[in-house]
Amino acid sequence: ARGANRVLKLGMMPADGIGREVLPAAQRVLQATPGAPQFQFIPLAAGFEHFQKTGSALPEETVRILKEECDGAMFGSVSSPSHKVEGYSSPIVKLRKELDLYANIRPVVGVRGTKDDEKWLDTVIVRENTECLYIKSETLEQGPHGQVARAIRQITEKASTRIGRKAFEVALARQQLREKAGQGNAVNQVQPAKVTVCHKSNVLSVTDGLFRTSVRSVFEKDAISAGGAGRYAGIALDEQLVDSMVYRLFREPHVFDVVVAPNLYGDIISDGAAALVGSLGVVSSVNAGDSFFMGEPVHGSAPDIAGQNKANPIASIRSAALLLEYMGYPDPALRIYKAVDDVIREGKALTPDLRGVATTSECEAAIIKALTA
Ligand code: ATP
Ligand code: MG
Q1: PANTHER family from the entry (predicted)?
Q2: Cα(13)–Cα(28) distance, rounded to whole angstroms?
Q3: 85-118 pLDDT per residue, tens
Q4: By alpha-carbon position, which residue is closest to atom 25 of ligand 1?
Q5: Where in the chain does DSSP place strands (E)?
Q6: Residues with CB under 6 A from ligand 1
């Protein structure tokens, strides 16, 4: 279904702050990538500033065009007001709901051959995106000894099973990407492919217990259905309590391949992992459903550096490559990953967050040059 001459329509939402600088950079990189499909970029309104102007952070027209006309999307970054603003709700949260993007997939990748080699890692965190404590069901009561606050944490078999299946599919896709990339390049060489389930079922035996058994059952049913040689037969299943997961992540980060986690643990461990690779400015993600994908850098709108041509465009550029990878174009995606790795390794066109002196535009230009070299 993916002919070479097909035009890919991508909805582009730069939204706020540095999103307006880094998303256009990612767009130009996509356009300059040899072997990439043809693109049609459709600019779409979203974000806090749009809310301030119009009263809507995510116009219905944006959602309609995404659903009816786009093959995929890219999101820049959204400012989150520090105080509650009447009538405002995050466009990202709403987009995930509207488009049923139930997984947030975050590769955290170091680059071999830099001074950080010792802490090198290349892992993908697959974070459940719809439930856990994020259903935001909290209560506050007056008890006999002062106030009592409670939060409900929801874990369902349905959501846990589908995130489990997604994690195994990510592990399979990575295995194939590894073969394409060859030794020593861009993709972790952990062998065999491995999925680590992150939980805390020694304490939360009911909720985390259900998460754990749901993910495991995807693997076990696959094995049984095919008499031991199922789709996931080449993948090792591992598990780790979230506390020891954090400890190992900092001590021996290279042991992890794919990690699957409930929403809150996924949030925390992926920010921790991001710290290991030097800057939020290099960490990408894709919001994934079953058939629609939206690339999004992990960082926020960085108001402290917005509008100064200082932001690191790598997170956005890697997110664009990740989007291509998930939309079924691994070859041009790999070219972008390699070009970014080359520029980081060379160290001459890095922005201030990576202790360089280059501007956003200079970093972008170096990546485009590396792509076509
Ligand atoms: P928001 O509320 O939009 O999340 P924030 O103040 O939390 O805004 P973040 O974007 O989350 O800001 O960034 C946290 C820190 O990391 C800031 O100091 C920011 O300058 C820096 N940072 C984030 N992204 C980048 C980037 N792409 N390049 C350089 N620095 C970045
Ligand atoms: Mg932030």
Answers
A1: DECARBOXYLATING DEHYDROGENASES-ISOCITRATE, ISOPROPYLMALATE, TARTRATE (PTHR11835), HOMOISOCITRATE DEHYDROGENASE, MITOCHONDRIAL (PTHR11835:SF48)
A2: 15
A3: 888 988 998 999 999 999 999 999 888 777 666 6
A4: 281
A5: 7-15, 38-43, 72-77, 103-109, 122-128, 132-143, 146-154, 193-199, 235-241, 258-261, 286-288, 293-295
A6: 18, 77, 79-80, 280-281, 299-305, 311-312, 315, 351, 353
